[in-house]
Amino acid sequence: MEKLTIKDVDLKGKRVLMRVDFNVPLNKETGEVADDTRIKAALPTIKYAVDQGAKVILMSHLGRPKGEKKPEYSLKPVSKRLSELLGIEVKMAPDLVGPEVKKMVDELKDGEVLLLENTRFHPGETKNDPELAKELATYADIHVNDAFGTAHRAHASNVGVAQYLPSVAGFLMEKEISALGKVVENPEKPFAVVMGGAKVSDKIGVIENLLEKADVFLIGGAMMFTFWKALGYKTGNSLVEEDKLDLAKQLLEKAKDKGIDFVVPTDAVIAQEMKAGVEKKIVSMEEGVPEGWMGLDIGPKTIELFKDKLKNARTVVWNGPMGVFEIDDFAKGTEEVAKYLAQLDAMVVIGGGDSAAAINKFGLQNEVTHVSTGGGASLEFLEGKELPGVKSIADKGKKKRRLLIAGNWKMNKTNSEAESFVRRIVQLIGGSDEHIEVAMCPAFTALSTVVELTRGTQISVGAQNMYPEDSGAFTGEISPIMLKDIGVDYVIIGHSERRKYFKEDDEFINKKLKVALKHDLTPILCVGEVLEEREKSLTFCVLENQLRRDLDGISEDDVEKIVIAYEPVWAIGTGRVATPAQAQEAIKFIRDLLAKMYSREVAEKVRILYGGSIKPNNFLGIIIQPDIDGGLVGGASLKESFAELVEIARKVV
Fold first, then answer.
1. Which SS3 state, helix, strand or coil, does residue 395 take?
2. Which residues are catalytic?
3. 302, 267 in Cβ contact below 8 A?
4. pLDDT (tens digit, 9 = 90+) per residue, 628-649?
5. pLDDT tens, residue by residue, 65-119
């Protein structure tokens, strides 16, 4: 799983809306931050954005105010501590959204930091309210998600905002995805899992998922007694999930069938009360726990057994303590396992929650490969679930089709202007790229020049129009044979300006498509709705009507050769642009329609571009969408910044 990160985007002068996890404990007496571990964990990402010259707007929740503004859950103490750690003033907003907040955002200078008030002061946060997400998105150019601890929740500040802004991972999120992803997807063998905690029911999904991958499985914590009882041994007053005894037996049987070394503790530390200073004993599994006593830690023989089972491991995941580690009398099992893992020559990943608290208690957090900052999030990740807060971050390297960045120059640039411009673009773009194709579509007068200058580069050349006849008395027109003769590869057909100004209808466009295909020219077929049609919710009807008429009589083999460009007419040359969500929705509709008209296999092969006021500052949000295969670029293709669009596309593939 590879995601775009903060290092993949240009931050200079950009407004960066960053979701962090500042859900820290506060001192009840002083109101100050009692433990700044989570704040420190976010510092690398915040500092990087500041150093890059970004305007940084931070979002976090704190506690559970349940949609109400409660002073005891204000982030003001966090703002103070963050200012001290960063060495610069962190401005504190009075709210999450609103006119006053918007004013503070607008006044923010490059390199400055603003902390918004608790996201959970608004009920729309946990409901992933699109209106709240949309308002937050107006504050920024880029969304950075660095809060893995909330990645299992689909909230407005992490998932909702990503529908309106390109979302990339911060360094902490990147580290979590990398470490946990490796153990879930491709752990180096032998792979050992150490599973503790109170209840089997809390870890069923993790156990079942990791049983498919592990070589050794060690069970500790209170859940061990559910397994003891399932095996027929006495458990006294120990915590046992009576309704999970059959499940425990099934897990033991499944591990046996798979040849996994599934190890249940052979002894335990027991006491009559769960508190410091009480009498404690060590009992073997065969002896069992007598009535009136409860198991509170793994025993010394189990500690040595676990060490022996772990000694050859190359990858280890540890989730859940071995006993009641908060009380020193029952912390030895957890401490000894922690110390052994810290000196092991292996990739050691500690699940969040109590496991992270335990490794921190013993001062070993820097001695292992990774300590997760997420409790519930790390559990769900280890279960193999797709976390909404991870899914919403832009993917890298998942494009199914070769991208096409095509520039439509329209009626611009003389032949000499085209020559100097193309020479510069060739320099800026560099060598060939198997994942990205670039096309330039100049005026007819510059076609031959551009073909010559781009020969041997990754840049193809397209014409902006052609007449659907090989030759004849058609004054002022250009035939497909003429285009092929000078080395043209693409031809734009059905552009909204041809439809509007030159009254080209779908029947004529259909004829053009067939003739272009006959002469081995690749058509870029443009479709799209006008503003009135969009406002009347007719977008899909318009697209379906255009495509069914334009593609009438065109075979499966031929339709795969066509590039389709969705160009909302209301966004061409107006400065307006469809949101990433709107562009993806329309292009997915086109792909699904092609699947109905032809087949899903054919639909997945057709490249579909977005066109309409594309610029470097909005292209990332467009190109990361799963069904969008590039852009048909108008005004921005006339400037050197056209090369920036290509560079942005390279970050995605």
1. strand
2. 495, 567
3. yes
4. 999 999 999 999 999 999 999 9
5. 999 999 999 999 999 999 999 999 999 999 999 999 999 999 999 999 999 999 9
Kindly give the pairing relationship between strand 167-169 and strand 267-271.
unpaired
- CATH topology of 6-169 equal to that of 403-652? no
With vertex at residue 172, the alpha carbon angle to CA 171 and CA 178, rounded to the nearest 5 degrees, is: 85
Give CA–CA dist 247/253, Å, rounded: 10
**CATH 3.30.470.20 holds for 178-391:** no
Render pLDDT for 491-542 as a digit per residue (tens, 0 to 9).
Answer: 999 999 999 999 999 999 999 999 999 999 999 999 999 999 999 999 999 9
CA gap 651, 387 in Å, rounded: 23
Q: DSSP E strands: which ranges in 409-448?
A: 436-441
pLDDT exceeds 90 at position 49: yes
Alpha-carbon distances of 85 from 76, 90, 169, rounded to whole Å: 14, 10, 22
Give the torsion sign (CA, 393, 397, 398, 402): positive
Fold of 6-169: Rossmann fold (3.40.50)
Average pLDDT over residues 537-560: 97
What are the φ and ψ backbone dihedral angles of 294, each rounded to 5 degrees?
Answer: -135, 145
Strands across the sheet with 280-284, in order? 280-284, 267-271, 294-298
**Is the backbone of residue 462 left (phi > 0), alpha (psi -120 to 50) or beta?**
beta
More confident: 46 or 396: 46
Per DSSP, what are the bridge partners of residue 281? 270
Q: What is the pLDDT of residue 198?
A: 85
- pLDDT tens sequence across 440-456: 999 999 999 999 999 98
pLDDT at 432: 65
Would you say the C-alpha torsion 139, 145, 148, 152 has a positive or negative sign? positive
Q: Give yes or no for a contact between 317 and 193, defined as CB atoms under 8 angstroms apart.
A: yes
Structure tokens at 572: 């061409």
| Class for the domain spanning 403-652 | alpha beta
Tokens of 571: 């966004």
